[in-house]
Amino acid sequence: MTTNWNLDAMHSEVAFKVRHMMISNVSGTFNHVEASMTSNSADLSDAQFTFSASVDSIDTGVADRDGHLKSEDFFNAAAFPTISFASTAIELNGKSGHLNGTMTIKDTTLPIALNIELSEVVVDPYGQTKVGISATGSLSRKDYGLTWSAVTEAGHIVVGDEIKLAVELQFIKQN
Predict the structure, then answer these.
(1) Cα-Cα end-to-end distance for the chain
(2) How confident is the model at residue 82, as a pLDDT?
(3) Domain 3-173: CATH class, spelled out
(4) Which of 41, 71, 82, 139 has the fewest C-beta atoms under 10 angstroms from its C-beta?
């Protein structure tokens, strides 16, 4: 029997980091995320995941930078309003493993592998059955057509190519 799980958005986060001017990392999140999971097994070893993030919800803590990221120089939120992920396979060794899938940014869909950790399935104080998933990985922004760049006077690249992902998703069992 298939079990459906919906996202508990209050306890979930899709975050990223990118190198800025080769000095430090800039962090950000997507404040509007939708996700779901289905599984036929109690240990979630056959789970299928999807998630999408609204590009307009990007938040780096600096409004001008967020506006630039939403512009045609980067995500082009007007033409491509969401970033999405769909799993293709999960490989678990106990509660950790790899989640393979495809990531779509702008008009480019590419395979991606994420490292994952599953929590125990628990019943919260309100009687809801929940599970948490932590996923980490990285991608090349240039592979997805996010190619805007500039060089400082000292010859440093303003925005690094590698984007580090850190995803925390909590799901609520629906049936």
Answers:
(1) 10
(2) 98
(3) mainly beta
(4) 41
Q: How many CB atoms sit inside 10 A of residue 165's CB?
A: 18
Query: Which residues of the chain are under the pLDDT cut of 50?
Result: none
**What integer pLDDT is reported at residue 148 of this predicted model?**
79
Site of tokens 């006077």: 153
In this predicted structure, what is the pLDDT of residue 135?
97
Domain positions in the chain are 3-173
User: What Å distances lie between residue 4 and 22, 36, 49, 51, 135, CA to CA?
Assistant: 43, 8, 10, 14, 20
